[in-house]
Amino acid sequence: MTEPVLFTINALDKIQQPYFGIDWWGQGRLNSVNANEQTHKAAFRHWERVFTYELYYKIRKMIDEKIGKGENADYWNKVMLQGELQKKELEEMSLSELDLEQLEKEYIPDFIFHQIETSLYQELIIEVKTKPNMTFSNFKDDLFKINQFIKRYKFKEGMFIAANNEFKHIEEQIKANNAYINIDTETKQNIYIVTRKDEKDTSKYKTLKEITSS
Fold it and tell me: pTM for this structure?
């Protein structure tokens, strides 16, 4: 397991319950003002952003501590963690010079570990969802996006994080829809599926290959 993957999983295990979102509080508050469905969706996106901000903070803290101790500092001084990298920044790179392929459409990943303006350290792309009890349709586009970054931008690994979900549930959704996952076996080996139900839970993970092969 590479350091970016390990750091992300360790950081995920440190997130406290309020950052997962308190569903009963959100629904109660929204109902009290006769909120419609659109308002409820907006509030839920707010919790997802709060969760990803906290995850970013905890990963950054671990990286800074690593650099401060001089442990693998050369690597971490090259590899940067960035969140929601905008399409414009990607387009400004010379894809031909970097030997990369253009993505099929606009994608803004939740997190990437990479070295800016080179293709030497395309380490990890991460997508995060916090909706409880997700169906495959809720995250199939995330898997496709991760595959695009691995195949076209030559990222070494990808990770899909499903907070507020049991691992077994996400695993069952993937197995039931395996026929719709158009990702080659080699790439599946480099994509981690990670869940953490709540603060009391610990992160659980397998590669996409492990899930679809079992």
Answer: 0.85
